[in-house]
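Comment thread on ticket #2218

A.B. wrote:
> Attaching the input chain for the structure job we discussed in standup.
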Amino acid sequence: MRFLQKQRKRGIALALVVMFFFSFAAHVTPARAGLGTWPVLKKGTRGEDVFALQYLLRARGYSIVVDGIFGSGTESAVKAFQQANGLVVDGIVGSQTWSKLIITVKYGSRGDAVRAVQRLLNAKYHTSLVIDGVFGSNTKSKVKDFQSHVGISADGIVGPTTWRYLVSHFFDLTRYGSSGTGWYHYYDDGNDDWGTANVIAQLLKVARDWYYQVGSPRIGISDTSREHGGYFPPHQTHRDGLDTDIRILRNDGKEASTKWYWSSYSRSLTRLLLQMLWDTGMVSRVLFNDPTLINEGLCTYYDGHDDHLHVDWKM
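C.D. wrote:
> Ran it. Output below, let me know if you need it in another format.
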């Protein structure tokens, strides 16, 4: 009898462990981006990686506008490049297209490929290079500093490996301060607001649109990822620059915490924010526990998400 009781207890304990594992796994996604992994770009993406892509396309002879927005013109140029280089012609820039597109540059090089390097260094490594397309001693010095920073050979030459680390390096939301047009950062520990270049650009676009449509209160943005990704306690995710925590909105104009069941919560403003996030076309899932907004298909329940939106981005 005691043996059966022990076996029953062990079975219950095992079941609880299995339930916890699958609950945890449902929220933990494998790394899809990160340092050393070529980012995937396609129509609708924007930000510093798209600037680099456009400069490289120009260096390859394609006449396109360099505006950091992957629109129809950029997509057509990408398809033409893929066609000319024996690649799958889908207009999506993944590892194979990046590998064919990049151009090795070093001291003495000139042109749009150098401009791409200079802009990436300024954006992602916080340098202050003049974007003049001239690979001089200052650019070489900053390239070597960046190479040392990410742990690769510091030779001052931007070849395939350095390109891959430059393009894949995350972008700091607070690069230009702790707040901006339509947004502010909260719970800052100094290394929690790095995301893929596309994620940060999409956040800033939503914030600008919010500013012109709503004004106040601003959108509160918190954790995304560490500079080089990886484990970010206490989060189960936030490892690959593709997860962002955003405060839900209050109805009294205050930029402070609330919960969906508090009287200070504004469902209408939070609904509008969710709609604007989904309208980017770059969101795959939002975790938030307001049952009304869940029934509207705007978010999904997950324990511990009563006071903020957890936004999963596609790229």
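A.B. wrote:
> Thanks. Noting for the ticket: Residues 1-7, 11-31 have pLDDT under 50 and may be disordered.
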